Fold:
Amino acid sequence: MEHIVESIRFPCPNAIHGCTARTTYYDQHFHCQTCPHRPCHCPSETCGFVGSTAALLDHFNEAHGWPCTTKVKAATMNYKDDDDYEFKLQLHDGFNFLLADCATADSKQGTIHGGLYLFLLNAVRQQR
Structure:
């Protein structure tokens, strides 16, 4: 009976978006959470865009003018007297958005340069 259950494969619900995976019943939830064809929704409250990851990145730039990157950049930030400033980030399985507000002060000119950066992160839990 166990072999029969394992031999039954189900198409991914994201097949309409291009996914060709066929998984067992007990693997389907994990696959759906990590499927690269899973549709992404624009996080803007006034936008109803839904599309692939690549299309979403293009949408950010074309429709909203948001700078975006798929590379992670990390640096130690110093907060008073060389004490390290640290933060923790918790991700859920699947796609995550990280909005970073980066402001730098130019003491020579007395100005502050800032920028908002929106990051799209795909977190995948490793199976043991």
Notes: The longest helix spans residues 53-64.
